[in-house]
Amino acid sequence: MSTRKYTKIEGPTIDSVPLIYKHKIPIQKTYKFWEGLKEGKIFATRCKKCGRIYFPPQADCSDDFSSDMEWVELPKFGVLEAFTKVYARPQGFDDVDPYVIGIATLENGVRVMGWVDPPDEKCVKVGNRVELTIRVIKDRHIIYLRDLSCT
Amino acid sequence: MRRVAVIGVGQSLYGVRSDVTMQELAWEAVKEALEDAGVTQRDVDISVVGNVGTRGYELMPAQPVNDYIGMTPKGPIRVEMACATGLVALTVGYNLIASGSAEVVLAVGVEKMTEVDTPTSLAVGGRAGNYLWEFHFYGTTMPAGYALYATAHMAKFGTTEEHMALVAVKNHYYGSLNPKAHFQHTVTVEEVLKSRPIAWPIKLLDSSPISDGTAAAILASEDAVRKYKIDTPVWIAGIGYANDTPLLTRRKDYTTFQATRLAAEMAYKKAGIEPRDVEVANVHDAFTIAEIIAYEDLGFVKKGEGPKLIAEGQTYAGGKVAVNIDGGLKAKGHPLGATGLGMIYELTKQLREERSGPRQAPLKKYIALAHNVAGVGPVSYVVVLRR
Lengths: 151, 387
Fold this sequence. Notes:
The complex is a heterodimer of chains A (151) and B (387).
Chain A: E1 8-9, H1 31-38, E2 43-47, E3 53-54, E4 69-73, E5 77-86, E6 99-106, E7 111-117, E8 129-137, E9 140-147
Parallel strand pairs in A: 7-9
Antiparallel strand pairs in A: 2-3, 2-4, 5-6, 5-8, 6-7, 8-9
Chain B: E1 4-11, E2 16-17, H1 22-37, E3 46-50, H2 62-68, E4 77-79, H3 85-98, E5 104-111, H4 118-125, H5 131-138, H6 142-157, H7 161-175, H8 189-194, E6 197-200, E7 202-203, E8 213-221, H9 222-227, E9 234-243, H10 258-271, E10 280-282, H11 288-297, H12 306-311, E11 322-323, H13 328-331, H14 336-351, E12 367-374, E13 379-386
Parallel strand pairs in B: 3-4, 3-5, 10-11, 10-12
Antiparallel strand pairs in B: 1-8, 1-9, 5-8, 6-7, 9-13, 12-13
Helix pairs in contact in B: 1-2, 3-14, 7-11
């Protein structure tokens, strides 16, 4: 073991006046997405003018200045492009077990992020096929990517 | 466009610095930079204050910083571009002088990160990019974002955890030689591999630390270089910048950062050089995989050959290109707003040949490169410096 030498210069401190933020996030323009999750469906938007699919869904197509969008349901299967298992969890996720985040390319080329099941970095592999499901974790609907090669 | 030189640089000791407030810390770099250039605040036309500030209690930080460092009534312009804030502050200063709006500019970057605990820091960093569609659902963190790139790079190019560990070994070696570094000790490959997982395959010793720190640069026009009789100006030969979507699911490829490739192309073109001309570089090694991908995106090697470059030791001083020989973000530390200007501090010292022994890169062309990235690659700045 090498000797540890690092910079830590400490002094006396006082506490600040605490500041708590809790935001109200508008979901009116993406409401169908949020409702869809409750029914186990994942919706994206498609620009009727140019056909571009937006996921995450957005209400405006910046490519051709159009807001004429339609909702399309995403396919349920895809292939894993990348993943990681998060051990050092941030505030807000400190009471859940370490989780695996993955990104999958679906059959129509759209990419989605999700939590990978099983959360086992030894088994999960880039290139594995995944099935998309929705689960409720702490009142939030989470997209899960079920690794079909390691169940 | 007028030419712009770096005529003075300063940097504080990086690390846990609960002995100072943000303003007191900023003065450490500003004082050194002004003394280094041989000018005072009276000679500076305007200040640019770089600070990410999302962890601080001073929510509008530029004004208290500017006042404390004695720049009232001139300035400040506040700059924020996540981890790339430092080189964006430099770019704003460069543009003010190049356009003829100013003769001398002070760019200072400062960050106090250790006033909040680590879970808070992870939650703040994880909000970089796009909160609603990533962090809100999946608890993405900064290390997790880079770890996604690591597993993709491993799957495509056979990159291993050992390759990544070799970057930590190199950068800690240089940190051990740098009295201003956060970490001043060496590590072994085995220690890196055995360190606790943060976001697998990224482990603790693959990660840059949460640091307090500050760095500053005094920029000047050619007229000002003559006026203040600067004997070794370091010229800003080219600045490149680009961005990519912050939404990771909209990226095309997880083995390369498009923003860095485009920024590097622009910087090389403006400077009139090729990647092989770069002799010493500071690249954005927030995590060890990021340095390996940077070798490729900056054109030091072909795509997929980054692991080989570190395995052959070609990025130590005396190799093909000396990279992060101040310890990099990994060992010198990563106080967000200061980081990019901390690179300019080191590279200016390198080009003036003020380092000694293994800490000085051997130079023939006197060409250096700084590479500063915001978040998990959505914004990249590349600066070419020449003596």
